Amino acid sequence: MAKTKAKANPYQQHEDALRSKQRELLDSYERDKAAGNALPDDGIQDLADKAASAYSKELNFSLSDGERNLLMLIDEAFNRMREGSYGVCTNCGNEIGEKRLQAVPWTPFCIDCQELQEKGLLS
Ligand SMILES: [Zn+2]
To answer: Model's pTM, two decimal places?
Structure first.
């Protein structure tokens, strides 16, 4: 990896935000996973029995689609930081506003393209 002025990362703040969000998601995932594996054999078991098979599946895949999607977006944002294309809309190439990056540092789109995407107009 190229070592060019690591300290001059203009997106340090966003990188930090991305990391803490990523950690937050992974932490809750790990916690749920651990809880799922560590279900006690007694007591609670009766209560849980009925829904057990369906429920343990839930626990093992406790990340919602939205959370999984978010983790993916965060990953991609890190990639763009490495490549130096972070902060630029992946669809139209326009700069993404600083305020927008602060609110959603993982976004790949500028506000215009985001709207298109939400209307299903982006491929
Ligand atoms: Zn755009």
So the answer is: 0.71
Q: Is a pLDDT exceeding 80 seen at residue 5?
A: no
Whole domain around residue 62: which residue ranges?
A: 12-118
Instruction: Say how many Å lie between the CA of residue 97 and the centre of ligand 1.
Output: 11
pLDDT tier, 1 (very low <50, low <70, confident <90, very high otherwise): low
| CATH code, 66 | 1.20.120.910
- Owner of token pair 């995932």: 29
Q: How close is the Cα of 16 to the center of ligand 1, in Å?
A: 24
CA dist 64 to 48, 59, 60, 70, Å?
21, 11, 11, 10
Q: Is residue 2 part of a domain?
A: no
